[in-house]
Queue: 3 jobs
Job 1
Amino acid sequence: MQGHDGNLQLFDGLALRPQRPADEPFLRRLIHHSKAEIRLADKPKDEIHGILDQQVAAQRAQYPDMHAQLMQFIIVKTGVDVGRLEVGFGPNEWRIVALDFIPEMENKGYGTSVLKSLQAAARNGMVPLTCAVRHDRPALRQVMTGLGFQVDQTGDTHSLLVYIPRAEGAPPPARPAW
């Protein structure tokens, strides 16, 4: 549902708005923060910043080509930009490509609120919702499985979690044949 400000309203007072070119500094800081494995590397600070900038450039250039109908949003809480959400809306699934928050908004349940909002939309469209979760993020995996996502595939560094919506009273859905 759209609010009076044109943003898409989510649960718990969160909203989404489309990313704009003016958001680049915010997105750069957010992506830098989300890459702890790089930030904590035993390298000179300028080298780490260079690697992080390469990550930002790669994501900005490659994500739209890698994910069908990629929509890129800024997550807003009471008028303040607090995170990003990027979702690929493919014909057979909706894929959560990125979900990040600024440090002071982490571990407050807002990620869960975004996931629940996406699940509600996926149920409405009867479309599976997927997300690749790194193995070094066990808390995220636990939250997602608690919300009804199931591990569908496991690779060396990530697991693919899938939420398959079902109509009220329907039996559990079969796993999709990807």
Job 2
Amino acid sequence: MEELEDDATEKLKEINEAAEEMFEQKERWTLHVSLSTAIIAVLAAIAGLIGNHHANEAMLERVAAADKWAYYQSKSIKAEIANSTTQMLTAMGKAPAGDLKEKTARYEAEKKEIKDDADKETESSELHMRKHVEFAYSVTLFQIAIAISAISILTRKKPLWFGSLLLTAAGIVFLVIGFLTT
């Protein structure tokens, strides 16, 4: 009888040890998922911050380009007024003021410089927007990965966690592309 009790006690200890080991393994897995999810959240925050910076810069440079194009138009109007005035005075047989031709030439020279500046602002704005789009893709993938990580903990399904890690890798690719976009 004592032998049976000793065997039962030993079996019970083995079962308890196995249960404790399984519990520790599950706790380690949960810890890994939690830590990876925290890292993904940090990556999402960084990508979001940088992406928003590029969106803001794109908008500011687009506004600056629009201002320069408006200035370009004002120079075009001034040049046309000076040119028309010269033509009208010549048609009426009167000599145009000497500075009208100089003004027209000056306005045309200024227009070229203003156009170049406006084009540079537009190009820079477009570059910032391209970078923003890449970072936005990255943020989206990171957010989906975080959601799937949470689902994997709730359902205790490792394949979901591995899927979230794959999405994280894809998000990192877009993050790198965002930095390398020129």
Job 3
Amino acid sequence: MMPSPRKEKELRTLQKDRPGGADEQARLEELKARIERFKATRGSRRKGEAGAARDAGAALNTAVRLLAELAAGIAFGLFIGYWLDRWAGTRPLFIVLFLLIGLAAAVRNIMRGEMKTRGSEKDAETERAPLHSHGGRKGETCGNPPNDV
């Protein structure tokens, strides 16, 4: 017995609306693809924000370290100068002298710390540089000109 056209239409509608139907599967696949695209764009945006925050944190760390070096050098120079002036009875002489020595020591420590930082960055670049024909890294001197000219 063949169903009437009206019944047939109702059956098709029910099959469409029933979970697991062909249309439902296609909609689910499309939804999954949209979710994955959203996650990918959100993740890349977050990585960019994290990189910017990491750079800002590194800059703040450097600024605080430089300030601490400067303050410690000046404070130590003032402390030693004050006690030497008190011991010798020459009020401003040793304070001024050791203040300048403390300032020079602080500047020297800052410069040395920055050179270490820049040196480690340069070493990292050298390690990533391509090898020359002699087996050394770019920037190393061996007397032979590089082949990648």
